[in-house]
Specification:
The chain has about 120 residues and is α+β, with helices and mostly antiparallel strands. It is built from five helices and four strands; from the N terminus they run ββββααααα. The chain has helices at about 45-55, 60-70, 70-80, 80-95, 100-110; strands at about 15-20, 25-30, 35, 40-45. Strand 2 (about 25-30) and strand 3 (about 35) form a beta hairpin. Helix 1 (about 45-55) packs across helix 2 (about 60-70). Mean pLDDT is about 80; it is low at about 110-120.
Length: about 120
């Protein structure tokens, strides 16, 4: 397994975001205000994870990101160590690779030490 740099979410603001970035979950009210549907998938996330969702997941999310970030902000975020590591984690998870283990993945994302199997016995 490739070593992945620690992800640092310390100091991140927690933001509410639509975690299901699909066009059917967004609309525009008659007065021009944005509307977000499917409230069950609105989550509070550290800002880094919300930004990663916009910039590195679906084509729709990337299209939305063009309205959220200016090109310089996008470049800085995409070059960050956090984004590089999150992209690696996403590859492991999309392959169904259990080498990280769910508990150890949570520790990794939160910057805590991982716990061995003996902790659970």
């Amino acid at each position: 397994m490739t070593l992945i740099a620690n992800i640092n979410l310390m100091g991140d603001n927690v933001v509410l975001t639509q975690s299901d970035m699909h066009p059917s979950n967004f609309g525009v009210a008659p007065d021009g205000r944005p509307v977000i549907f499917d409230a069950a998938t609105i989550q509070a996330l550290p800002e880094t994870l919300a930004d990663f969702t916009l910039l590195k997941t679906t084509d729709f999310a990337r299209a939305v990101s063009a309205y959220v970030f200016n090109p310089v902000e996008m470049e800085v975020l995409l070059a960050s160590a956090n984004f590089t590591s999150l992209a690696e984690v996403r590859i492991y998870l999309s392959r169904g690779d259990d080498n990280l283990g769910k508990f150890n993945l949570a520790c990794f994302l939160l910057g805590a030490d991982t716990l061995g199997p003996s902790f659970f016995s």
